[in-house]
Amino acid sequence: MVWPFTSKKIQTRDEFRIPNDLDELLKQEEPTLSEREFKSNLKHLSELTNHRPIDPNPTLVPKDSTAEEQSEILPSEPKDKIFTVKTALFENGPLLPDSRQDPKPLTQEQLKNARELSQYKRENPLHASVLVNCAELQLAFLNCLTDGKFAERMRGCNVKNNFYQSCLTKQSMIFKFFDYNSMTSIREFEEIKYVADSLFTKYYQCYDDLFEEEKNEKFTKELRAKREEFHSKFGK
Fold first, then answer.
1. Residue of 230, 120, 217 whose CA lies nearest to 175
2. What three-state secondary structure class fits 19?
3. Residue 44 lies in a domain
4. Rounded to whole angstroms, how far apart are CA atoms 200 and 169?
5. Does pTM top 0.85 for this prediction?
6. Across residues 166-178, what is the average pLDDT?
7. In a domain, 133, yes or no
8. 184 falls within a domain
9. Rounded to whole angstroms, how far apart are CA atoms 38 and 45?
10. Which of 85, 178, 199, 212 could covalently link to 192 via disulfide, CB atoms 3.0 to 4.6 Å apart?
């Protein structure tokens, strides 16, 4: 144990020296790997990393001269040339065939039919056509309010009003069932209006008829049959 304030000098790490005989012994016993151990270590390392086995004695592959010959034959593009969509279209031809074609002009008859159909659609939208088919019931309701019996007028002519409102609902359902708004000819529009009006007046003569299950079933069955007949007639 060295006491503080002693006169003996303490050696540092830099001043410490290994004896010469020990230094020579360490140099002679330096570990070395044999060639067999080196190859086995390389094989083990390649298996761990899932790569191909490393060749301890790699050989140089002769350079393929055909690639250089082909590159010399092919013309090289200028370095400063910029490829754009415009250059691809006008230099190398169109990428896709141009599908835009001038439409064939319509005949006078076709133009006339188109104008008539457009005018008919404006004058006969779905809600207006429904009102036309229920116009008689609406008139009966208005007459009841003005000239009806006193008892009916006191109740607001609710029976006739309910029948009129039910007509609007049924007619609107029939028009949508036939896809009225997608028709392409006046004949088709008129046919749908006729079918809707005739079916409703056939099965519903008064407000109480709307609550009879038998009439409702027959109405639904004939409505489907009329639509199939309509589709076969107009090729829908």
1. 230
2. coil
3. no
4. 11
5. no
6. 96
7. yes
8. yes
9. 11
10. 178
